[in-house]
Structure formats: structure tokens, C-alpha cells
């Protein structure tokens, strides 16, 4: 199990500060989800932890700086599912998932039988078996998203970063994928940091939520403390009702301001 500690993270892109002084503590084996409106900095934060964007501040895993690591070592520690992964031309699904084993393959060697076994298992788990020989460029959005997750899980890193991992998945596959991640978290002690737009889903799977707005953390804590009508309407400009169900879950329901709409229509008639 590995704990993530981000301290005073600052990112400036094209001369604009998009993350300012962000602190984030993710206990070992827990799941923290970043929420916030478009452009808040969720992806940038995940990319910084993955080592994909220049930043100031510290990023440590079990008190070891990730920034001090070589990329191969970092890839054994951190697996990242980006929001918009590229699809390599001419590569089939099995080879794409095998890329996740690259940090374990010695230089000038090929994948071992155990690397192949890890990939084979993931092809089954993520229902990719029948697509194994298909070029990744030919997959539907949801099929490719499952392949991207398989590639990340093949890395067997203790920290998993997921940027909108279910955006292209239907409801069933979305639940299945998030349940799988949660199972791995419980069984193997994975630490998970994700960014999700669907606030109800975010609340179902995370231990804690972090609300980012304009590159700063404006609220952080257990789901019930962050998913409030007040915070959501203030920072998303959205009209919602927050319902607490009997199991302790939080459901965020968008509502239309019906009275105003009806009045307008009547006026116009
Ligand atoms: N490569 C880049 N160059 C310049 N600005 C960028 C770059 N990448 C992101 N930004 C800007 O940084 C800010 C944060 O973007 P980011 O993608 O992290 O937000 P987000 O919270 O993930 O948004 P979304 O919910 O829309 O995916 C945005 O204003 C965005 O325009």
C-alpha cells in the first residue's frame, strides 16, 4: 500500500497559473476523487502526479519523491488512464495492453511468460478477448476505454490515476469497471485517485472528494460534506437536489427551475 502526498503543487501553462498551491493527501489503499467544473485543473493535477506536466511543489509516494524517479521506475509506481489517450496506428489490442508491461521488460528483451499471463487475465476481466486481434484504431470509444484501463492495470502499480475512466462507457460497463477498480483496491491495496464528472458516481466510489475550482481546492472531505446543494450551486452554477439514500449514499439530481420556465412560456403565449 502506498500513500500519495502532494504539497504546494503549482502548474503554469502558456503563462497562466492553472494549479495554485494544491495540497493533497491520499491515504494508502483509499480512493480519492477530484470533482469540479470544466477547466478546474483536475486533469492537470493527475498529469502532474503521472509526471506528464511540468510543475513546482512536491509529489511523494510513501515519502519517496516521484519526481526524482526515472520514468521506468515511476511507471512501476504510478499507472495513469488519461482522459484522451492516443490510439497508436497499426497496433492491435493485445500488443497495446502489453505496453503496460514495458517497465518490467529488461532492455533488449521481449515480454516474459508472466507478462503475457498478466495481459491474458486482463483481456478476460475487461471483456477484451474477442477484440484481442483488432487494431485499436478500429474500436468503439467504450471498447478502447476498456483497453486503456487494461493497459494501466497491466502496470501493476500501487497508485492508479483515472481521468474520467467511464466517459465513453455504457451504464453497465461503467459500473463493472469501477467495481473492478474497487475490488483491486480492496484486494491488492491499490491507492486510487480519479477525476469524475458524475457526482453521484463519484460519491459512490470515493472515500473522500476534493472539489477543485480555478486551480484551487475549495472543499475536501467525506462525500456528504462535499456534495452539498450549496457547494454545487456555488461552484457549478447548477440547480441540483442532493438526496441522501437509506444506505448512506448521496444522489445528486439535476433539477429544472420549472416555475421560472412555465411563467416565461405563459407570458409569451
Ligand atoms: N496544454 C495546455 N496549455 C495551456 N492551457 C492548458 C493546457 N492544458 C490545460 N490547460 C488549461 O488549464 C486549465 C485546467 O485544465 P484541465 O484540463 O486540467 O481541467 P479539468 O478540470 O480537467 O477540465 P475538464 O473537466 O473540462 O476536463 C484549463 O483552463 C485549460 O484550458
TrEMBL record:
Question: Is the keyword Ubl conjugation assigned to this protein?
Answer: no
- Tell me the GO molecular function terms: ATP binding; ATP hydrolysis activity
Q: Coiled coil where?
A: none
InterPro entries this protein is in?
A: AAA+_ATPase (IPR003593), ABC_transporter-like_ATP-bd (IPR003439), ABC_transporter-like_CS (IPR017871), P-loop_NTPase (IPR027417)
Looking at the record, the residues that make up the ABC transporter domain are 4-239
Q: Which SUPFAM superfamilies match?
A: P-loop containing nucleoside triphosphate hydrolases
Keyword annotations of the record: ATP-binding, Nucleotide-binding, Translocase, Transport
A Pfam short name: ABC_tran
Give the domain of life: Bacteria
Name used for this protein in its record: Iron complex transport system ATP-binding protein
The organism named in the record is Haloactinopolyspora alba
Amino acid at each position: 500500500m502506498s500513500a500519495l502526498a502532494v504539497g504546494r503543487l503549482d502548474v503554469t501553462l502558456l503563462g497562466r497559473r492553472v494549479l495554485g498551491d494544491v495540497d493533497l493527501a491520499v491515504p494508502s489503499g483509499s480512493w480519492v476523487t477530484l470533482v469540479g467544473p470544466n477547466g478546474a485543473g483536475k486533469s492537470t493535477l493527475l498529469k502532474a502526479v503521472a509526471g506528464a506536466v511540468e510543475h513546482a511543489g512536491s509529489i511523494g509516494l510513501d515519502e519517496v519523491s516521484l519526481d526524482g524517479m526515472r520514468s521506468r521506475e515511476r511507471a512501476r509506481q504510478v499507472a495513469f488512464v488519461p482522459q484522451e489517450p492516443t490510439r497508436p496506428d497499426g497496433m492491435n489490442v493485445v500488443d497495446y495492453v502489453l505496453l503496460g508491461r514495458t517497465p518490467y521488460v529488461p532492455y533488449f528483451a521481449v515480454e516474459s511468460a508472466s507478462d503475457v499471463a498478466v495481459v491474458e487475465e486482463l483481456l478476460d476481466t475487461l471483456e477484451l478477448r474477442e477484440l484481442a486481434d483488432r487494431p485499436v484504431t478500429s474500436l468503439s470509444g467504450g471498447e478502447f476505454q476498456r483497453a486503456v484501463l487494461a493497459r494501466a492495470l497491466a502496470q501493476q502499480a500501487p497508485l492508479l490515476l483515472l481521468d474520467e475512466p467511464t466517459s465513453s462507457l455504457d451504464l453497465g460497463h461503467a459500473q463493472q469497471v469501477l467495481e473492478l477498480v474497487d475490488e483491486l483496491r480492496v484486494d491488492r491495496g491499490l491507492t486510487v485517485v480519479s477525476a469524475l464528472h458524475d457526482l453521484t458516481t463519484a460519491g459512490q466510489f470515493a472515500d473522500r472528494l476534493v472539489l477543485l475550482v480555478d486551480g484551487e481546492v475549495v472543499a475536501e472531505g467525506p462525500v456528504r460534506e462535499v456534495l452539498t446543494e450549496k457547494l454545487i450551486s456555488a461552484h457549478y452554477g447548477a440547480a441540483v437536489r442532493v438526496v441522501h439514500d437509506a444506505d448512506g449514499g448521496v444522489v445528486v439530481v439535476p433539477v429544472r427551475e420549472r416555475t421560472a420556465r412555465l411563467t416565461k412560456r405563459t407570458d409569451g403565449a
